[in-house]
């Protein structure tokens, strides 16, 4: 009888693992992929998708079924819904199905947790927080607001904030007032590429305001947004785009398997990416955020998890998970600039543009659909 692998999450990590397993075990394995969304979402390009006319929906959204249908129909099942509970001792998970809100209990031989993280601000379109229709609506609505606004605040100066401000500056730096609100005295949490990124933003006429941590934002009936800073100061703008904070999607996981940080409860894993204290449960991507959340890290973790799941199914010992050979950090700053580093070596702006900023990796979407990513 075929063994069952349940994968929770149909984004970068989960779909990668599904392809890796199905390509080798199309006949002797059942993979059940659980996703809130019917579509795979290339969220790395969401920062450019809010600029009207720049990115088509079909460039960054593809049906998950089209990715799985290349395999034997008996080897996979796609469930559109959300995990609401997990019993690692009993080896089962509960999933509420989007179609009729019914609950289905699924037993597994191996379980992969790849449910990622969502934006702390529910209205932000940088991550998939709801259904395919919800994400499309959020992106389109934000693009319309961007087009109409004369003054825009970007709240938060992490990598997402830098990329959002860069896209706005590139398109509207000469016609709209773009301000990046930075909580501290340096952007990017003081990373070594911060001065280069700040310089590139200034070239695009983006104003950086330091020591301006956003405490709250409230939209008034006239459409204006009042932003209150941590120091008590209030600012008024046409549009505020929050980019701060991620919330791991771990609510369905028993607390004993999660980190103690009440504000950022990630899954605890060992060097094999196996959940600590659980058997036959693995995790990868933003739900782990170890050593940090990032695309290249997620790719490597997904590959390691797939290999260790395969080993466990065959009764072999797992191998230590491998990360990227060098820490790569790159921020696109608009459609012509960038700032980044490879380890401690700074990368030229043109190099970051060529590797990332030119397309924001949209060409890689095809690999997640045809399986060549794994």
Question: How would you sum up this structure, described in words?
Answer:
This protein is of the alpha/beta class and 374 residues long. The chain folds into 2 domains: 3-120 and 246-324, FAD/NAD(P)-binding domain, CATH 3.50.50; 139-243, FAD/NAD(P)-binding domain (3-Layer(bba) Sandwich). The chain contains 10 helices and 21 strands. A 7-stranded mixed β-sheet has the order 7-6-5-2-1-8-18. It has a 4-stranded parallel β-sheet with strand order 12-11-10-16. A 3-stranded antiparallel β-sheet has the order 13-14-15, with no helix packed on it. Helix 1 packs parallel to helix 8 (295-313). The longest helix is centred in the C-terminal third of the chain and has 19 residues, at 295-313.
Q: How would you sum up this structure in a few lines?
A:
The protein is α/β, with parallel strands linked by helices and 374 residues long. The chain is built from 10 helices and 21 strands. Belongs to the FAD-dependent oxidoreductase family.
Secondary-structure map with pairings?
Elements: E1 3-8, H1 12-24, E2 29-35, E3 39-41, H2 46-49, H3 57-60, E4 61-63, H4 64-68, E5 76-87, E6 92-97, E7 103-107, E8 110-113, E9 117-119, H5 132-148, E10 151-155, H6 159-172, E11 177-181, H7 194-203, E12 206-209, E13 214-219, E14 225-229, E15 234-237, E16 239-242, E17 246-248, E18 281-283, H8 295-313, E19 328-332, E20 338-342, E21 345-347, H9 349-357, H10 365-370
Parallel strand pairs: 1-2, 1-8, 2-5, 8-18, 10-11, 10-16, 11-12
Antiparallel strand pairs: 3-4, 5-6, 6-7, 9-17, 13-14, 14-15, 19-20, 20-21
Helix pairs in contact: 1-8
């Amino acid at each position: 009888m075929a063994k069952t692998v349940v994968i929770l999450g149909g984004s970068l990590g989960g779909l990668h693992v599904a392809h890796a397993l199905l390509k080798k075990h199309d006949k002797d394995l059942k993979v059940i992929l659980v996703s809130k969304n019917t579509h795979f979402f290339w969220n790395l390009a969401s920062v450019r998708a809010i600029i009207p006319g720049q990115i088509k929906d079909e460039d960054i959204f593809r049906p998950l079924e089209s990715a799985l249908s290349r395999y034997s129909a008996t080897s996979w099942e796609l469930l559109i819904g959300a995990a609401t509970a997990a019993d690692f001792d009993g080896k089962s998970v509960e999933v509420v199905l989007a179609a009729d809100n019914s609950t289905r209990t699924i037993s597994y031989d191996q379980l992969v947790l790849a449910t990622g993280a969502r934006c702390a601000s529910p209205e932000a379109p940088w991550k998939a927080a709801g259904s395919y229709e919800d994400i499309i609506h959020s992106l389109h609505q934000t693009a319309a607001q961007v087009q109409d606004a004369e003054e825009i605040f970007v709240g938060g100066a992490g990598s997402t904030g830098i990329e959002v401000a860069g896209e706005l500056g590139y398109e509207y730096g000469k016609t709209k007032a773009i301000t990046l609100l930075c909580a501290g005295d340096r952007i990017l949490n003081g990373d070594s590429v911060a001065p280069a990124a700040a310089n590139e933003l200034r070239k695009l006429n983006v104003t950086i305001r330091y020591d301006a941590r956003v405490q709250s934002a409230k939209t008034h009936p006239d459409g204006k947004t009042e932003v209150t800073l941590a120091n008590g100061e209030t600012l008024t703008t046409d549009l505020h785009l929050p980019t701060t904070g991620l919330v791991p999607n771990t609510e369905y996981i028993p607390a004993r398997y999660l980190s103690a940080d009440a504000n950022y409860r990630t899954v605890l894993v060992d060097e094999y990416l196996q959940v600590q204290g659980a058997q036959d449960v693995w995790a990868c991507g933003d739900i782990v955020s170890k050593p940090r959340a990032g695309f290249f890290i997620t790719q490597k973790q997904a590959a390691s998890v797939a290999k260790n799941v395969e080993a466990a199914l065959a009764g072999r010992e797992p191998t230590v998970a491998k990360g990227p050979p060098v820490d790569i950090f790159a921020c696109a700053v608009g459609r012509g600039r960038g700032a980044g580093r490879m380890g401690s070596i700074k990368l030229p702006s043109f190099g970051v543009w060529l590797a990332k900023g030119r397309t924001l990796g949209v060409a890689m979407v095809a690999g997640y659909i045809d399986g060549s990513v794994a």
